[in-house]
Amino acid sequence: MKKILCPGFKAAGIACGLKKxxxxxxxxxxxxxxxxxxxxxxxxxxxxxxxxxxxxxIKSGLCRAVVVNSGNANCxxxxxxxxxxxxxxxxxxxxxxxxxxxxxxxxxxxxxxxxPIEKIKKASPGLVKALxxxxxxxxxxxxxxxxxxxxxxxxxxxxxxxxxxxxGIAKGAGMICPNMATMLCFICTDIKASPQFLQKTLNxxxxxxxxxxxxxxxxxxxxxxxxxxxxxxxxxxQSSTKNNSFQKALNEVMITLAKKLIKDGEGATKLVEIVxxxxxxxxxxxxxxxxxxNSNLVKTAFFGxxxxxxxxxxxxxxADVPVNPDKIDIFFDDIMMVxxxxxxxxxxxxxxxxxxxxxxxxxxxxxHQGKGFSSVFTCDFSIDYVKxxxxxxx
Amino acid sequence: MKKILCPGFKAAGIACGLKKxxxxxxxxxxxxxxxxxxxxxxxxxxxxxxxxxxxxxIKSGLCRAVVVNSGNANCxxxxxxxxxxxxxxxxxxxxxxxxxxxxxxxxxxxxxxxxPIEKIKKASPGLVKALxxxxxxxxxxxxxxxxxxxxxxxxxxxxxxxxxxxxGIAKGAGMICPNMATMLCFICTDIKASPQFLQKTLNxxxxxxxxxxxxxxxxxxxxxxxxxxxxxxxxxxQSSTKNNSFQKALNEVMITLAKKLIKDGEGATKLVEIVxxxxxxxxxxxxxxxxxxNSNLVKTAFFGxxxxxxxxxxxxxxADVPVNPDKIDIFFDDIMMVxxxxxxxxxxxxxxxxxxxxxxxxxxxxxHQGKGFSSVFTCDFSIDYVKxxxxxxx
Lengths: 394, 394
Fold this sequence. Notes:
Chain A is α+β, with helices and mostly antiparallel strands. Helices cover 33% and strands 26% of the residues of chain A.
């Protein structure tokens, strides 16, 4: 397999003892040249300590490094937690020989336990020494919690003939729901772009990707998406750029990462896109798609490979937007299962059941009321989800 | 065990072949004298056929009988469904020799399959013949779906020295969430009360009971609560009545039934009350209690008997109401686990874990922001919930 790279960036991932099983739990991304930065953070009213730090620091628009630990969320840890987040960044800055203001931090893991900062302190020199051009795979492993696979995407595109690279790394498998979740995502790119432009592009890409996925309807305290653009390539993008292939490329990277999160969702065995069309507005369509995508009854039926369309209609009916049950059509992929609110019979059901046996499929709900459209990605809800989450801390 | 009765009422429950396993699936309650009636129905935009019929018929304020089937929800069944609901009522009316306008219907079970009305037709004479003063137990069995136990409560209280009886029967184990669910509840009482007064009393009792419980956050299409008051006792209640012991008694019956639903929730092993105090308003307190009570991560932690208070704080933080994380206290029963947003340490955790091993306990979240108070009943989220709902139709 080709090694994942991003020009002008180095990365590392090592084990410092935060994870009980001795696996990698401390990661670092470093831009060898100054980079512009933008970020998107959780809307939860309870927020991890690093969020407060990062929100403040990205205001400068500049960043050289991000240090990330797994195994502990450093959330609900009071003033000590904020000091720990600062220290974590400071330790790396000092090893790297850069200003601590240029280092961001992020944490993911159990909430409510103090961050073992001594372990991080001891490991910081080794972490910086481990930095390498091809260190992204190690970094991706170091930020995993209940994830079963690392999640990296790297693509090259061009703008006005100038090649640029976007390399994205994400983690998150539970507490995933619209408006992100226990999700961390770090995007490195060698394009040249202003912090303001990066922020706008990142906001749009987030709307298209991480805000359209749900695993369990729980929104995390630590959700963070950071993009760093170091201009190491000759590609430049700005608000006057026509045919903004950078936005398209960033959407592509982040949608791919979002789908990887769902596929690796806790206990998930299926990736399902819930598509709603014909609503009175896009907002109405989103509310219905979101309600269906979060319904435990719908998701357990997916797990059971049961074309129980009644649960889909019932979920659509409680989304608190106008729905005319007698006009609803429902398709599983291209199989029409419901027409004008009525089931299409045994043959349709048999064909739909076949669709449900696939690892990926789409459910289309056509309301025939207007032009509103939206879609949300979700997964099935399995016995393993409960097992994983009942035992998480033990 | 004492037989359940309600003066002036007869009930029955028989098997007519709707349930594959041959168990009771058709029930009837009959008031031997004219009764006043009131009802509360689902707010889902998709509604079972019987809801349309019953809403219309209770406008008269009068009712003599309710016929109920399980095994089929008669929902998403179009015009045929409405005809079937009418026929179901008409068949009983004709056997009972009363006007069909005085008979209500209710259905519960799988959505989207036509009601096998022929089976009900064939069974109706036998159903009416089976009516008996002590038939409530059979009725309670006949309306069960995934319920594992019948749910009946009967109490006697007095108003101005005159004894009255309230007998309530409910069913529902999944699709249970605030604003009711796949829940049916029938209340018989021999008190004398106007339909308007019954409606007001029923609305208040519903707010105190079925609108404060959640099993899986899914709201059903068929939720129905019907109260019939036949005045067979000498007790009378009206809006001018002081010390309305009827409201208290009705609250008691409905709260007891609501808790029975939770205890028998699909896969549930624990009944948990989520209490929120110190919010800026009662509405804010309710939103937080509701969000925590519906969090899959919180509920799986209850199942795992894990005092994972971080998930509770995280859920509280996404309820979209003002929360100051640094002020939050959390108790498991009388054990303080969190003070000012910080965990109280290993001893508190050990004591909390003991509380979580109990079949019933309370979680108190004190926000220290104001006087808002609310509480919601929920259950844990177990492996069996997924098993039950993945296989429901197979």
